[in-house]
Amino acid sequence: MRKYILIILFGIWFQNAWAQNQDPLSPGFDFNATQDSSGQMGDGIADTEEGDQVNEKTPVKPYERIVLNMDSITNLIVYTAVVEQDESSSDSLYVRSKRFAQQYLSGAKGVDKALYEVDKKNQKLVINGQLTAYAYSSKYSKNSIGKYYFKMTILYKEGRYKYSITNFVHEAEKPNSGTPARNYFEYYYTTTTGIRKVDQLLRFADKDITKMLVNFTKAMKEPMYLDEDEW
Fold first, then answer.
1. I want to staple 172 with a disulfide (CB 3.0 to 4.6 A). Which of 2, 88, 122, 181 is the partner?
2. Cα–Cα distance between 191 and 1 in angstroms, integer?
């Protein structure tokens, strides 16, 4: 009889101890445990069926348009720089720039009579240049999308020169009938419609103009001659 009384007392004690551990106010409550919707204690990881994925809305980064240099006075896009070239005379720089324009900026039909606007007194040459406009579909593939027309002004001093390229116009390929569309770069740069399309065209143009300027500065350099006493 005494044995049964001890078993009953032990059962009552165990039930009270278990209830205290589930009370958040009791010292034995486990705050790290979680409870699922069925009231059972779990590990805090939601059960999902195989193949389910959590769809999270990721913020879309705003499209960033190309940034070009704008003249604060004329509000025109301009590529400009002063190049120091100590070994070159102003006359030599003048001749070299004319030669470069004849070879690369005059178009496929040869030198246009309106290619130059010469101001010898002020040591200035203005070139009405043109380049073939290309769209680049890959690193090794491109197709013509018309012409770029621009005005390139070069100022000369002994041992240095300054170039400024502005008044950019894009002329599209000539259609079968009618005249080709023409737009200033400033329109492409400021328009609020078809942004990605015109921005891509400006990026193509920037690629070609930058390449042209690299070739121009190379052509402007004097060849290095070896002195007969230095061999």
1. 181
2. 99
For the ranges 73-77, 149-153, 184-188, 222-226, which has the lowest average pLDDT? 222-226
CA distance 203 to 64: 12
pLDDT by residue (tens digit) across 35-84? 343 333 333 334 444 444 555 677 878 889 999 999 999 999 999 999 99
pLDDT tens readout for residues 44-55: 334 444 444 555
Q: What are phi and psi of 65, to 5 degrees?
A: -80, 155
Question: Mapping DSSP to helix (H, G, I), strand (E, B) and coil, where does residue 153 land?
Answer: strand
User: In this structure, is residue 28 part of a structural domain?
Assistant: no
Burial of 165 (C-beta count, 10 Å sphere; 0-12/13-18/19+): buried
> Does residue 187 fall inside a structural domain?
yes
Taking the CB of residue 96, how many other CB atoms lie within 10 A of it? 18
Domain that holds residue 185: 79-219
**Does residue 228 have a pLDDT over 60?**
no
* Cβ burial, residue 92 (10 Å; 0-12/13-18/19+): middle
The C-alpha angle with vertex 173 and arms to 169 and 177, in degrees rounded to 5, equals: 120
Domain assignment present for residue 171? The answer is yes
Tell which residue, 88, 199, 228, 101, has the closest CA to residue 153: 101
d(CA 187, CA 181): 13
Domains in the chain: how many in total?
1
Element at 164 (helix H, strand E): strand 160-171
User: What CATH number corresponds to the domain at position 87?
Assistant: 3.30.530.80
Q: Is residue 211 part of a domain?
A: yes
